Amino acid sequence: MTPPGRAAVALSAAISAALLATACSPASPSPVGPSTPPSAAPTAAPSAAVPSGTVASAAAFDPAGLGDPYYPRAGNGGYDVGSYDLAVAYDVARESITGTATITAVATADLSFFHLDLHALTVSGVTVGGTAARFRQEDDELIITPRAALAKGATFRVAVRYAGRPELYPAGDHGQKGFFAGPDGAVAAGEPFSAATWFPVNDHPGDKATYRVAITVPTGYAAITNGVPGIRSTRKGETTWHWSVGVPMASYLLSLAIGHYTVLTSTHRGKPVLYAVASSIRDHPMLPALRRTPEIADYLETLFGPYPFETYGGVVVDEPRMRFSLESQGRPFYNDSGSGDSGVIAHELAHQWFGDSVSVRSWRDIWLNEGFATYAQLLWAEHTGGDTVDEVFNNAYETADGSIWSVLPGDPGPTTLFADSVYLRGAMTLHAIRRTVGDEKFFRILKAWTLEHRFANASTAEFVALAERVSGTALRALINAWLYQPSRPAAP
Ligand SMILES: [Zn+2]
Questions:
Q1: For residue range 466-492, what is the model confidence (pLDDT) as tens digits?
Q2: What is the ipTM of this complex?
Q3: Considering only CA atoms, which of 412, 372, 414 is closest in space to residue 74?
Q4: CATH match of 13-27+356-484 with 1.10.390.10
Q5: Which residue from 27, 101, 195, 247 puts its CA 20 to 30 A from 444's CA?
Q6: How far apart are the CA of 352 and the centre of ligand 1, in A?
Q7: What residues pair up with 187 in beta bridges, in sequence order?
């Protein structure tokens, strides 16, 4: 996003439009309030959260956070989720949800208790292994104490019954994210956090999992999320929509749209294609670009390797408070501010490789998502007759706003996670590598990256090591200057 008071990036019309119109960043500046970002509170000492008993290896992990350098209390330590099975019902008139989340996980330490993340919803019951467990809620932490302690390595199943009126996170540094409840439906989406606004979750990309989601809504409403569509059943004026995500997914990539939607389905190369467009949006200029999703994905596949996921498509929502588009896995969510430029589609599709399949280990490495997706957007623009990537690079190098040289794309800080520098200078970092190693080795690096870290997590340090290994070229000093130097690096 572009916070107020900071000049927009001065670039060619193409890249300016692309950056402003896209893409995991809002269409225009939004107010920045003084509120606390979700899960951004200081890390608690493990003992502070102990409801009873002790943690066998308390020093080894934090039960209340995964230790992300920017959001220490995001996610929870001590276990690894394999799958979420969510059954939720949404009452559109009351803007309220009731749900049961059944989570299968493996203990990665001996546990007498463990945490899940849940925002502004009330838990009424918890079982672990089918046996009632004690629980309490402290801010956004749900703390569960099973009847019997869990041994390291044990697989366990926890079921949480909950209800309430889902909320947005306070509009903080990145605008409003979370659960957007409206008079005629709802949208849940947001990066870096949104999932815990509608179900209990280990809310950090470091713990990816598969999902099965059943959403019950009043008949006549659509309920769309990620994954392969399953059966749809109607009973007593309510319809349940079933979805399954069989490939591990980061929690922020699970998005939800409930409302009146025009749903179009087809197949592409044997995989389901599903577009859902809010029925209030008619003849929107973005729709022809949206329908190019398979074509754009096929083009990107020639550059980055096989398309990673089970589905293609996209969801266009009519929710003015959602000022971003998001690379929701297998089915990106778009706000309706698109101009008709296919760049935003290319950007969110590129994230399917960079961000969704290969996910960050920590949010500090966000350039691995946004720099790469922006670079793909530039490649698509060149491919379709726009400025060449080289022209955009040269133009940006000479004329870009000073903020991209002062903000470090490799360590932008939690309050400027989506700074222009992360997008543009991140992309320029890749172009600097390309100029140094040549096209053939550069695209081999990208394909090796998506292959070796497919469906997993990776870090900037791992990228540097891989790029040097694949290219046979010393790149560390170059990449360090482009990612971490608080001034314009030498021209490559
Ligand atoms: Zn993005």
A1: 999 999 999 999 999 999 999 999 999
A2: 1.00
A3: 414
A4: yes
A5: 247
A6: 10
A7: 180, 257
For CA atoms 474, 394, 410, 169, give the dihedral sign: negative
Give the distance (Å) from ligand 1 centre to CA of residue 434: 21
Distance 465 CA to ligand 1 centre (A): 24
How far does the centroid of ligand 1 lie from the alpha carbon of residue 474, in Å? 28
Question: How far from chain centre, in Å, is Cα 223?
Answer: 20
Listing DSSP states for 291-311 in one string gives: TTHHHHHHHHHHHHSS--SS-
Distance from Cα 347 to the centre of ligand 1, integer Å: 6
How do residues 89-125 score in pLDDT, each as one tens digit?
Answer: 999 999 999 999 999 999 999 999 999 999 999 999 9
Helix (H, G, I), strand (E, B) or coil at 167: coil
Distance 19 CA to ligand 1 centre (A): 9
Joined tokens for residue 344: 């935003």
How far is the centre of ligand 1, averaged over its atoms, from the C-alpha of 220 (Å)?
33
CA of 387 to the centre of ligand 1 (A): 20
How many Å lie between the centroid of ligand 1 and the Cα of residue 34?
Answer: 25
d(CA 450, CA 230): 29
Which CATH code of 1.10.3370.10, 2.40.290.10, 2.60.40.1730, 3.30.310.50 fits the domain covering 46-337?
2.60.40.1730
What's the gap in Å between 333 CA and the centre of ligand 1? 12
Where are the domains positioned within the chain?
A: 13-27+356-484, 46-337
Residue 234: CB atoms within 10 A of its CB come to: 11
pLDDT in tens, 189-203: 999 999 999 999 999
- Any idea what the Cα angle at residue 249 is, between residues 272 and 123, rounded to 5°? 115
The residue with tokens 């916070």 is 3
| Element of type H or E holding 449 | helix 439-452
Is pLDDT of 48 > 50?
no
- pLDDT of the residue at 15: 54
| Centre of ligand 1 from the C-alpha of residue 51, in Å | 40
